[in-house]
Design a protein that fits this description.
By secondary structure, this protein is α/β, with parallel strands linked by helices. It is built from 12 helices and 16 strands. It has 2 domains: 134 residues, translation initiation factor eif-2b, domain 1 (Four Helix Bundle (Hemerythrin (Met), subunit A)); 213 residues, 3-Layer(aba) Sandwich (Rossmann fold). A 7-stranded mixed beta sheet has the order 6-5-4-7-10-15-16, with helices on both faces. A 4-stranded mixed beta sheet has the order 11-8-9-14, with helices on one face. The chain has a 3-stranded antiparallel beta sheet with strand order 1-2-3, covered by helices on one side. Strand 8 and strand 9 form a beta hairpin. The two termini are 14 Å apart. The mean pLDDT is 96. The chain binds 5-S-methyl-1-O-phosphono-5-thio-D-ribulose.
Length: 358
């Protein structure tokens, strides 16, 4: 199935070409496909903050390439370039707080830098490391797709109606997606009847991005308002909720797009299975409990305006963009190292000791 799935990789959000990072501007999708050329860490940090690129793995990959751009610029400037680099790392680390892949990628790159020997081509070797992070995320997507589809087959059989939230697809990763990777694989295996995509207020990742990606692959997809989810579980035979993650705590609690928590509560009530699909780079063993995860709040204007038009009276708005789903509402966490069912601290620790499956 890996080859078939690789052939289905159509959408790309990130390209490293001629020594620069190109990001597909996700703010303009699905109507415009424009690419932003990033030639400095500062431009990448701004692009992450402004959601040109978004989705936890894609943010991490972009940060890795930004690290290369920073090293190159600091080397050219001369002096104590390693010390000066910290300013770039701090800028990148401050771009968004919740997706741990950002911090994970910066740590990987920093560790690679520290392993360099005198006389090494620093920029060249760090470029190889960033490409490696990108490539291994792509590989992880394929492995998780296989594991996720095996779960669906084992637990439910043919013709599933799946519900997803936000966008955990090609646009959010280095490959063809985490949650959407499983959904794409289910389609290829003939297990899928329809995907329901929560529109995902306020940024509309579901209607603008997920629906676009799936429709491009000929996968039957219907968009619904977020608040329809419980009703759909009751009336449309939804069998699985499949989502990605921004950070998974050591106890298995999952931070993901706002609204994921209420989906999990509703899924439990309706006997719908709940699957989280995320690479191990999203697991943060240093954070014991979901309550310790920093959840980003974005500007109130994202709620109070629509297409630049004010849609509410002069009131305050609260715009937390992530929430935490407690581990005890989750049936499966699927990673490239394997699957954890009914996650808890012990099972997460065991998972993290395993090697990648491919
Ligand atoms: O605010 P976003 O669009 O970056 O949020 C993205 C999500 O919540 C995704 O579900 C998550 O990052 C997983 S992407 C594979």
């Amino acid at each position: 199935m890996r080859e078939q799935l690789l052939a289905a990789e159509k959408v790309k959000a990130i390209e490293w070409r001629d020594g620069a990072l190109y990001l597909l501007d996700q703010r303009a999708l699905p109507f415009e496909e424009t690419w932003l050329r990033c030639d400095s860490a500062a431009v990448v940090a701004q692009a992450i903050r402004d959601m040109v690129v978004r989705g936890a793995p894609a943010i991490g990959i972009s940060a890795a390439y930004a690290f290369v751009l920073a090293v190159r610029a600091r080397l050219q400037a001369g002096g104590d370039w390693r010390a000066a680099l910290q300013e770039d790392v701090d800028l990148l680390a401050a771009s968004r707080p919740t997706a741990v892949n950002l911090f994970w990628a910066l740590t990987c790159m920093r560790e690679r830098l520290e392993r360099l020997k005198p006389g090494d081509d620093a920029a060249g070797l760090l470029e190889v490391a960033a490409i490696g992070i990108h490539q291994s995320d792509r590989e992880a997507n394929l492995t998780m797709a296989q594991l996720g589809v095996d779960l669906i087959r084992r637990h439910q059989g043919n013709q599933q109606n799946l519900l997803t939230h936000c966008n955990a697809g090609a646009l959010a990763t280095g490959g063809f997606g985490t949650a959407l990777g499983v959904i794409r694989a289910a389609f290829h295996e003939g297990l899928l009847e329809r995907v329901y995509a929560d529109e995902t207020r306020p940024w509309l990742q579901g209607s603008r991005l997920t629906a676009w990606e799936l429709a491009a692959d000929g996968i039957p997809v219907t968009v619904n308002v977020d608040s329809a989810a419980a009703h759909l579980m009751k009336t449309r035979g939804i069998t699985w909720v499949i989502v990605g993650a921004d950070r998974i705590a050591a106890n298995g609690d999952v931070a993901n797009k706002i609204g994921t928590y209420q989906l999990a509560v509703n899924a439990m009530h309706h006997g719908v299975r709940f699957m989280v699909v995320a690479p191990s780079s999203t697991i943060d063993m240093a954070t014991e409990h979901g309550d310790d995860i920093v959840l980003e709040e974005r500007d109130a204007s994202e709620l109070l305006e629509l297409g630049g038009q004010r849609i509410a009276a002069g009131v305050d708005a609260l715009n937390p963009v992530f929430d935490v789903t407690p581990a005890d509402l989750i049936d499966f966490i699927v990673t490239e190292k394997g699957v954890v069912d009914r996650p808890d601290t012990e099972k997460m620790a065991q998972l993290m000791c395993r090697k990648r499956l491919h």
